[in-house]
Write a structure and sequence with these properties.
Elements: H1 9-15, H2 32-35, H3 56-71, H4 75-87, H5 92-101, H6 104-110, H7 117-125, E1 129-131, E2 134-135, E3 148-151, H8 156-167, E4 177-180, E5 185-188, H9 203-211
Antiparallel strand pairs: 1-2, 1-3, 3-5, 4-5
Length: 212
Amino acid sequence: MGRYTDPVCKLCRREGQKLFLKGERCYTNKCAVERRPYPAGMHGRTKQFRRRSESDYAIQMREKQKARRMYGVLEAQFRRYFQLASRQPGRTGENLLSLLERRLDNVLYRSGIARSRPEARQIVRHGHFAVNGKKTDIPSFIVKPGDVIRAEPGERARQSLELIREGGPLMQTPSWLDVSPEEFTIRVNAKPARSDVEAPLNEQLIVEYYSR
């Protein structure tokens, strides 16, 4: 299966909560979850199609799907992240969230440069940023503590950093990132802790899904 190209608001309505896939729109009364808090489709709100009590497996799968859709990761890639997290020391669930948070597109989103992860992914693909001096156009690139992400000269990314310098970031920057609009850089200070992850996810359910 390729990249999802249908309306992203359907994904939020399917999960029954905001996945923040459309930036500022998600914070307004135009948000589809607030206007139509039921699954998409002609039978979304009829009695016979209301959500029934789900099995443990269904709950675990929904949590995994929610994480995939929130970070914009395909199934095979998400499974590889889980396998990598399971081989690292510490808790597998927290390792998994740390890997997802350290994706380059998510770093740009969390730093306030992009209004949504899809927008951040587009900025990366267009080659507007370099990591440690090397131009990088791979959204799934995993940054490490000590890495320096710099906006390429004359590109759209610098305009976003200029806006941050003039009016502040679009969202609160987490402590594991240091944004310097004057130098057009983002520095990765450390790996994100579980408390730094704002995504409304229960990582233990994802671990249970893949461990069954």
